[in-house]
Specification:
By secondary structure, the chain is of the alpha+beta class. The protein is 38% helix and 26% strand. It is built from 7 helices and 19 strands.
């Protein structure tokens, strides 16, 4: 059928438009396909360049104990991750292990496989018995089983949430929980103005002569909260049996000698700083009690014997502390009675306020 020129022109224009549209659509599809391919390739490259590692789920401060619930696994670019970061929580848990003698368990890699080791008289590989889940070393071709303890891990420095965790950022806590550890309460210490729960302190005694001794070192404190307000003068500390007796002896000395004080000093970077060595020489009767106390572990007994069975300790005690108490005479007894009564009264009042605050919260 014949068509007029106008119809042919319209048809040709339509076909041309369709052709142009198909061409443009093809170009767009090709571009989208290329972008999709590039995106897929990039994702595959990123996947190859990514690793899983544990990061903090919250902010922590120096010296704060790190627990597994404070860690989360996160995928990150391996170029941004140190080689000692780990995605295996058991490596961190193993890092916290010690045997009962205090020898550390550490990890070494053998053909990219992590293995546990311990150093005693020499280095031994620590293995786990599948049947019993007990740890052992092979010594003289025989199994020697190990009693392992999990030592608290603390942050060496202040860290923000999402910080990648490596063993270099963690240290083993000095406050290992032993069988003779007890939670003790004290309300006679002179405390730093800015002391808060979680801080680490040394307890020291200073005499009027200027002599200053460390009684116990690097103890984490908790501040009782009474009615929503932190106590001004009371702290809780976890102390071993020998440390409890050291504190008791030092408190008695401080009470008897007028002008002396027993006070706390804070660690500035608890995670990085090692515990100070106690220098306070207890009296002879307390020293004998420490060395014969069945509640004190054998290892602690040996340390006590080494510390106090030396000339310097006895000279310090006799020349400074005992002489200061003797110079006080009857006044020392009066000071002791007065201060002990004040301490008892303060404890009772603080306890009453604490219970009243709990009763108010329940109502």
């Amino acid at each position: 059928m014949a068509t007029n020129p106008m119809q042919r022109k319209a048809r040709n224009s339509f076909l041309l438009g369709m052709l142009v549209m198909l061409l443009i659509s093809g170009i767009i599809i090709a571009l989208l396909f290329m972008q999709l391919m590039n995106k897929t390739k990039k994702e595959q490259e990123e996947l190859k360049a990514s690793v899983n590692a544990y990061v903090l789920s919250e902010d922590v401060s120096s010296g704060q104990v790190i627990t597994t619930d404070m860690l989360k696994k996160q995928t990150v670019n391996k170029t941004l991750v140190p080689s000692n970061a780990t995605s295996d929580i058991t490596l961190i848990e193993n890092y916290a292990l010690q045997d009962k003698e205090g020898n550390d368990i550490y990890t070494k890699y053998d053909n990219n496989t992590p293995k546990l080791y311990i150093r005693k008289d020499r280095e031994y590989e620590v293995k786990k018995e599948d049947e019993t889940d007990n740890y052992y070393i092979t010594k003289n071709n025989e199994k020697e089983y190990l009693e392992l303890n999990s030592v608290p891990l603390v942050a060496k420095v202040n860290m923000k949430a999402n910080t990648l965790i490596t063993t270099e950022l963690l240290s083993k806590s000095d406050n290992v929980v032993r069988d003779d550890v007890r939670k003790q309460e004290y309300n006679m210490l002179v405390l730093p103005m800015d002391l808060i729960t979680g801080d680490y302190i040394d307890v020291r005694i200073m005499l009027p002569s200027g002599q200053d001794y460390i009684v116990v070192s690097k103890k984490e404190v908790s501040i009782p909260n009474i009615g929503g307000v932190d106590s001004q003068d009371t702290v809780w500390m976890n102390l071993t049996e020998d440390e409890i007796l050291h504190m008791s002896c030092a408190i008695i000395d401080a009470y008897q000698v007028k002008g002396s004080k027993i006070y706390a000093t804070k660690y500035t970077e608890a995670g990085m700083q090692n515990a100070a060595t106690p220098t306070y020489p207890v009296n002879e009767s307390t020293s004998k009690l420490l060395q014969s106390d069945p509640n004190i572990l054998e290892r602690a007994m040996n340390e006590i014997a080494n510390r106090y069975n030396n000339t310097n300790a006895s000279e310090l005690r006799n020349n400074y502390i005992n002489s200061a108490i003797s110079n006080q005479g009857e006044q020392a007894k009066t000071n002791l009675e007065t201060n002990m009564q004040e301490s008892t009264t303060n404890s009772k009042n603080a306890r009453k306020e604490y219970l009243d605050s709990l009763a108010g919260a329940i109502q």
